[in-house]
Amino acid sequence: MTANLTPQYLEAEKAFKEATADEERIRWLEEMLRLIPKHKGTEHMQADLKTRLSRLKQQHEDAASRAKKTHSWKIRKEGAGQIALAGTPNIGKSRLVAGLTNATPEVADYPFTTRAPQAAMMPYQDVKIQLIDLPPLSDEYEEHWVLDLLKAADAVLICLDLAGDPLSQLDWCIRHMAEKKLEPATSGQADMQVILRPMLAAGLRLDLPEARENLEILRELDESGLPFFPLSIETGEGVEELRRALFDILNVIRVYPKAPGGKPDMNEPFVLSAGCTVLEFAETVHKDIARNLKYARIWRTGKPDGQMVNREEPLEDRDILELHT
Known about the structure:
Shape: elongated
Number of strands: 13
Strand order of the largest sheet: 2-3-1-4-7-8
CATH class of the largest domain: Alpha Beta
Oligomer: single chain
Structural class: alpha/beta
Distance between the termini: 88 Å
Order of helices and strands: HHHEHEEHEHEEEHEHEEHHEEE
């Protein structure tokens, strides 16, 4: 029986032969395994590919172990908060980041396009939120620092492909992160070794024909309890809802300073943790102001303009605050 190899498989085989780095060779071997026709005539070829892939991965892991994980990443937080993107290979994370920001990450229709973390700023109203595009989560090969960056972020966005099997993807991602001691903040986990982070999920490629049916299955069977937002970057459906959700999950507020007798600065708000007080805002502005603070005046929906409040007054999103020393 002939193998009947497709042009796509032959292109992947050519790319594998030309590759020099282990990571690239692993990626193309995995692509060859995905593309090879599955029938009796290719059984020996499939077995050979699996053996070569296993040996190459072991070789790469041994080299990484000898290096003692000397290479790692740390992304400095900017904006209103940092949200890291998690997901399985080739589901559209980079395309989502490109659609939400002005960044231009590498986007391609093959897995493991993203090799290093890429930070980009997403505008939302009058603030910006930092998104971190990461290499995919995978049982087969995964950079050791991917989970480190997910744990370091303020929140995690799990990305799913609605044109595939989003329910299985979501279940696997949650289980995989839990195995690495990272769980949703709503899990109730009390283990001190477990890192808890706010999480939500985005269903991508809503514009594809099979996406709507898969979305209904996910909504019916999902037991994760995570907030879920389906969207299409191509049509724009659901994009603004996701932007709002990404801001909300950070659990922060915007406070606008106003000098006595002047106008409030509505262009660059201070971004603070929800529930902070007038005194905590003053400490953010300047320690001397906080030390000498007597009272503040506040402009807020539902309150008289300029009402006097004390140092312990809890602040709300979009408050305008005038400090008096």
